[in-house]
Amino acid sequence: MPSIQAVLFNWIMKATFKSRPIHLMEAKALRDGADALAPKHPPAGIVCEIVDGAAKGEWHRAENAEPGRTVLYLHGGGYVFGSPKSHSAFTYALAKEACAEVFSLDYRMAPEHPFPAAVDDAVAAYEWLLGEGRDPEKLVIGGDSAGGGLALALLLSIKARGLPMPAGALLLSPWTDLATTGASLDENEKSDAMFKKVYIVEGAKRYLAAADPKAPLASPLYGDLAGLPPMLIFVSQSEVLRDDSTRLQERLVAAGVQSKLVTENGLIHVWPIFPGRFPEAMKSIREAAAFIAGQTKGGSPA
């Protein structure tokens, strides 16, 4: 059973976010609203550095970071909104718990920059990190929702380009099927505290423009997943995107990829990005931190 705090947060999100026609809202309004919820300053033990060069984004560095331990993080927001700022409460917490340096990428978004602009930016960021001397064996790629799908698209691109694979991938309720064929879109429309089916269907069109919704770099569920690194995936049984993760897990296992799927019931979509709001968020962040530490051969986080 979810905690009382999680139940209350679900109720608040249903009464606010889910009640608004987000598929019809202007991108700027969505972006401003998401950024307004961000913490004003990093917590003790975290240093923030803005980067505006070959890759744009923010470093969120734990002062006690294990040397070289790196996370390339790709925020969610339907490829339309979200930013390093909007997701900083999570990336600060992840950096601290994993004793890592998190680079949160500020990738281009739709509708101004539809598919594959986000993928191109993610590839450029990974190549930039390698060029800066980051060891892929100490690097994990992470992402939530659209950012989780983008993380998988990046992994497929890494494989196609013959680049060294990262040590692992952390995916929070990844959006893997922009063809929107998952049964949970209908089955969980009432139980999902954040989304209605129409938000997903129309959101996919906003990002894809005229692209094929089953193109693997847009919908990694349809890609060749063999050879990808170990993954940790979180999803709620109550969300409309449940089947984007459960089907992904099935295909990863069939492709011989080491993957663990963590499912919770009654929690909101991408619940770990809300540390401090309910206890389940920090519990999952600590599990994610342990995965990052284990995959990057740096031992357990402090």
Describe the protein.
The chain is built from 9 helices and 8 strands. It is of the alpha/beta class and 302 residues long. It has one domain: Rossmann fold (3-Layer(aba) Sandwich). The chain has an 8-stranded mixed β-sheet, sandwiched between helices. Strand 3, helix 3 (88-98) and strand 4 form a beta-alpha-beta unit. Helix 3 (88-98) packs across helix 9 (279-295).
Short description:
With 302 residues, this protein is of the alpha/beta class. It is 36% helix and 16% strand.
Key descriptive features of the protein:
Rossmann fold, 9 helices, alpha/beta, 302 residues
The helix content, as a percent range, equals 25-40%
Shape: globular
**Could you tell me the number of beta strands?**
8
- What can be said about the biggest beta sheet? 8 strands, mixed
C-alpha Rg (nearest Å)? 17 Å
CATH topology: Rossmann fold
Count of separate DSSP helical elements: 9
| CATH homologous superfamily annotation | Alpha/Beta hydrolase fold, catalytic domain
- Give the spatial strand order of the biggest sheet: 1-2-4-3-5-6-7-8
- The CATH architecture assignment turns out to be 3-Layer(aba) Sandwich
Strand residue content: 15-25%
